Amino acid sequence: MNIRVVFSGRGYDRAESIPASLDLPPGSTLSDALDLLAKRLPDEIQLPAACLIAVSGKHAGTVARHEACPLGEGDELVLIAPVAGG
Amino acid sequence: MMLTPEEQQRYARQMGSGVLSAEGQQRLKRSAALVARVGGMGGPAALCLTMAGVGRIIIAHGGELISPDLNRQLLGSEAALGKPRAGHFAETLRGMNRFVTVESIDHEPDEGETFELASRVDVIVSCPPTFAERLRLNRAAVRAGIPLIDAAQWGMSGTLMAVEPGKTACLECVYPEEPPFEEMFPVVGAISSATGSLAALEAVKILSGTGKPLFGRMLMVDGFQGRTRSVELRRDPRCPCCGPPR
């Protein structure tokens, strides 16, 4: 199955290194997708632990702490690295 | 607390169909807001709330204005460089609307003072640069039982979320571990103003009882990549800040 990947927040300028979509075996979960992303990304742009994760618009936790979430064809994985600013 | 004829004239363009009712405008007049940090986002937020007619606005921001602030801190000016921000910014706000009371705090409130401030207002607009301060404001809002709007930015992107304590996810539900602080974050003033203005819009909606607030959602605006997303946030039932759903 194929899912779309959207990355934003702190370091969005590195988003070009992050694939816009991932091909995963049927039955894959959010953790599988994050593991695959981690393998695809160079060490210097690994996703931050506090990065917010949403699957098709629903909050699923952070990279470090997220729920077991089955993925389906066409899901959108949104990753928002924490921003603060001021 | 009725609106005077002068106030009715001032707010004529924001009262009516699709905007605020007369009762909503009166609610704004009776309301108080704390805007924590009035820099790139909080400055425009405080300005919009002042112009909208929120009755009492407390701004909190320590330190002196420096040149790099002027790419985004629109309450500042060349004349204010090197001077404490809070007093100068408060004067700028007072000059925009004589019907609004503006108080200024020239330092970063600690845990106790933040809660004391939260107890005196109806909403908090959180715009600090550190997660430590944002999470402190979130704790105060949850403890005081008042809504919090959190605005954040980086580069050309911004995020916005609104917290209804006890009902929707709080900031600590979203960030259970405090993310690291980046002192010299990049930022373009246009996204600061946009994010701060949207935060003010949420406060106006909440205080006046108008429209559908962003409670329980995060809005992400990525100007760099030209896209937006909305995320439905979930409460963490084990959240040490807001605890189990009531």
Keywords:
heterodimer, A: alpha+beta, Ubiquitin-like (UB roll), 5-stranded mixed beta sheet, 1 helix, 5 strands, 13% helix, B: 246 residues, alpha/beta, Rossmann fold, 8-stranded mixed beta sheet, 8 helices, 33% helix
Helices and strands in order:
The complex is a heterodimer of chains A (86) and B (246).
Chain A (H helix, E strand, L loop, with lengths): L1 E8 L11 E3 L6 H11 L11 E4 L2 E5 L13 E6 L5
Parallel strand pairs in A: 1-5
Antiparallel strand pairs in A: 1-2, 3-4, 3-5
Chain B lengths: L4 H6 L11 H9 L1 E5 L5 H11 L3 E5 L24 H10 L6 E5 L5 H8 L4 E4 L4 H14 L3 E7 L2 E7 L7 H4 L14 H20 L8 E6 L4 E6 L14
Parallel strand pairs in B: 1-2, 1-4, 2-3, 4-5
Antiparallel strand pairs in B: 5-6, 6-7, 7-8
Helix pairs in contact in B: 3-8, 5-6
Question: Can you describe this structure?
Answer:
Chain A contains one helix and five strands, in the order E-E-H-E-E-E. Chain A is of the alpha+beta class and 86 residues long. Chain A has one domain: Ubiquitin-like (UB roll), CATH 3.10.20.30. In chain A, strands 2-1-5-3-4 form a five-stranded mixed beta sheet. The longest helix of chain A has 11 residues, at 30-40. Chain B is an alpha/beta fold and 246 residues long. Chain B has a single domain (21-232), classed as Rossmann fold (3-Layer(aba) Sandwich), CATH 3.40.50.720. In chain B, 33% of the residues lie in helices and 18% in strands. Chain B has eight helices and eight strands; from the N terminus they run H-H-E-H-E-H-E-H-E-H-E-E-H-H-E-E. Chain B has an eight-stranded mixed beta sheet with strand order 3-2-1-4-5-6-7-8, with helices on both faces. Chain B starts with a helix and ends in a 14-residue tail after the last strand. The relative contact order of chain B is 0.16. The model of chain B has no long low-confidence stretch (mean pLDDT 96). The A-B interface holds A 6, 8-13, 15, 48-50, 52, 54, 57-59, 62, 64-65, 78, 80-86 and B 37, 39-42, 127-131, 134, 152-159, 169, 174-182, 185, 187, 192, 218, 220, 222, 224-225, 227, 229-234.
